[in-house]
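Reply to dn_fold:

You asked what the input looked like. This is it:
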Amino acid sequence: MRAFLIDTDVASDDAVALIMALRASDVRVVGITTVAGNVVVDQATRNALYTVELCGSEVPIHKGASKPLNRDHQNATWFHGEDGLGDHGYAPSTQKTPQTPAADAIIEAALNFPGLVIVTLGPLTNIAVALKKDPSFAKNVSRCVVMGGAPCCEGNVTPAAEYNIWVDPEAARIVMQSELPIELIGWQTSRGGSVLNDRDIAHIQTFHTPLADFTIECNSRARKAYKIQTGEDGISLPDPVAMSIALDPSIGTAWSTHYVDIEIESVLTRGMTVVDRLYVASDERNATVWEELLKKPPHVKVCWTIDPRRWKAMLYSALQT
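and this is what came back:
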């Protein structure tokens, strides 16, 4: 049984990713940590509690950072709705959250479950705080699957940056430069053929299960926003795509390992995911800028493409019963 810890700013696609992990027969979700991102951290925590209860599960949910390390919090309620779940008025959960702060819960989980898989679905603030408190916990993590970034492509919040990285670029930089074994699942993997089209949505609706109904309903606002944003019609689910790869890495069909850094100073390219795809970081013209990273081998595995059919099949399996 694999142990997962999921760090998330629970909105509509995060909730579906949680369902996939909680429904996986070979995974034990040992903790969920929440962070300010799509919505404020209190709302993210409420959404996590609701989703866990909907799945009939009991998982400790630890509230984390209420803002980025050095910046004001910028939410994404324009995309996901004021409550993050499409504003459908879901009843609040009656479950309570433990008092352990998220960063401490992350460190404890790595200590208690050697080989822990960490899956991040929001800004990386909690992970960065944990690394600053005790960087040695990274040694007990077998995989750190990060949904974030727009490697070598356009962003979804600025032309240069994807939302999770843009919100807290300083935290993302700490994580990318850490000893964590990172697998970067960028926003591009949830576009094109990975988007749930009308046929996919109709198929899910034939399941007539609470989880299937919730998946389509809570993403209704996000579907409209995604069409405005990209011109593509359908439900794009970046976090569930990342979760499918966390559950089965072979769903990623093209991978390579690189130096990766995050832009934190520029106004124009704040949060840009800079990938040394052509391995030129050590060239004379670049070496000074990349000096710190060059002290260690490149270690960030970047997923460039996925198998859309297999990711959707995994989603269907999680929602059918």
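The CA atoms of residues 282 and 291 lie 8 Å apart.
Hope that clears it up.
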